Amino acid sequence: MNYLILLPVFLPFLAAIIVPIMKFKEKERNFFVGTAVIINLIIVMGIFYALGEGEIHLFKLNEFIDVFFKIDKLGILFTSLVSILWVLTSFYSMEYMKHEGKENKFFTFFIITLGVTVGIGFSGNLFTLYIFYEFLTLVTFPLVIHTESKEALESGKKYLAYSFGGATFILLGMILLFSMTNNLNFQPHGVVRAVSTDNFNLYLGIFISMFIGFGVKAALVPFHSWLPSAMVAPTPVSSLLHAVAVVKSGVFSLIRMCYYIFGVDVIKELKGNIYMIVPIIITILLGSFIAIKQENLKKRLAYSTVSQLGYILLGIVLLNKNAFIGALLHLINHAVIKITLFFVVGSIMYTTGKKNISEINGMGRRMPVTMWCFTIASISLIGIPPTNGFVSKWFLAQGGLTAGKIIFPAALLLSAVLTALYLFPVVTAAFFRNGDYENTAAKEPPKKMLISIVIITIVVVILGLFPNPIIYFIEEIASEVI
């Protein structure tokens, strides 16, 4: 029965191979891709219902080289989020990619990335996570350079350099850690035991090395610049990078490393989290400050992502229950909010070709439904009650107060003000400024794109109005590790 765990990891690989081989016509390919991601979602949910929690060793050479999959509550949370958002992104992409071209190539790597990301969620040990984490870089690289322009190729080089550079820090830490513990399996409270004066500095070095390594994909300043550069990719790719696959895999891996390898008590003893507080606060504030100055819509959202990821990282390193709950809530909430914002920006680019804020004056009259969805998502990202963004930031602020430092909620509050300063001008330009679109008839994006935008916006609203079921589930995860 546990072999079912492998299905949602490797089924997308099989589907991705079929796409270029079969040479589908557009409608056939879209039907195949849509069916594949929906079936994968059904399998994921079926496994969670049937197995609850399970594990399987796919290949084991020794205690270090062990490809090990395990389902636990954290993996269920992450993989469910990925699988659901992948379906919406798939249908959005079917329309959007028409004007980007090379659609078969795009959907081939798009589906493979789903399997790799599920593999990260199901990884039962650090070695398996590392393998899929590296593979994620390789399969998203063709998506980043999809247009094959000079700018795209340069961005791709930067993406590889940063990702493989971070992976080097991870690998170094993983090897040293195994030499100390002989165990890389994920388990609540971690596998590190008996920190002493003899190994204190080594454990601290391992923690910082791995935090920086995983922090690269989580856009930790100063290792963040690959993310805005990757905005040259098509908008569905931007959605994957910023909302679903890459940056959230970085955050998810940091949670695994902190709470399932080192453990809260060991990190507190090492004071490893203290060393990361300053770069995280800088990440939160610098991302917001730079976002305000960006005229390009996608670049503004990119730096917004840098800032918002800092919220999650802060929740991780505060090492208390409220902060941890806030971090996992914001992992989910930021994903659905940011994918909504990118979908809207992509729709503007698709229907009008406009990319800058100064070019969308009056856009709310042309695309009222689309821009209202942007407005709702913006209010949620700022954290105005009773939105989902408010719920997660409330827990993060409580976690900061629990840690005994007023600076943490103060930084969150300042960042919320800055978030309003870089998002509300877009809303103001669309609805309250006169421009090229003030007297045009309403013309929304094509149905597949608009329906995806409306559905994900409804999810944003529901998560704000009815957060308790997810909060209860996250509290169960928190009780296991803290």
UniProtKB/TrEMBL annotation:
Protein name, as recorded: Na(+)/H(+) antiporter subunit A
Q: Which InterPro entries match?
A: ComplexI-like_HydComp, ND/Mrp_TM, Proton_antipo_N
Please give the GO cellular component terms listed in this UniProt entry. Answer: plasma membrane
Gene name on record? Answer: mrpA
**What terms describe the molecular function in GO for this protein?**
oxidoreductase activity
Domain NADH-Ubiquinone oxidoreductase (complex I) chain 5 N-terminal, first and last residues per copy: 65-107
Pfam families according to UniProt: Proton_antipo_M, Proton_antipo_N
Localization, per the record, is: Cell membrane; Membrane
The record's listing under PANTHER family reads: HYDROGENASE-4 COMPONENT F (PTHR42682), NADH-UBIQUINONE_PLASTOQUINONE (PTHR42682:SF4)
Similarity annotation: Belongs to the CPA3 antiporters (TC 2.A.63) subunit A family.
UniProt main location, coarse:
membrane
The keyword RNA-binding is annotated on this UniProt entry: no
Task: Describe the location of the NADH:quinone oxidoreductase/Mrp antiporter transmembrane domain by residue ranges.
Answer: 123-419
Topology with respect to the bilayer: Multi-pass membrane protein
| Keywords, sorted A to Z | Cell membrane, Membrane, Oxidoreductase, Transmembrane, Transmembrane helix
Q: Where are the transmembrane segments?
A: 6-24, 31-51, 74-94, 106-124, 159-180, 200-220, 240-262, 274-292, 325-348, 369-386, 406-432, 453-474
Give the species this sequence originates from.
Answer: Clostridium homopropionicum DSM 5847
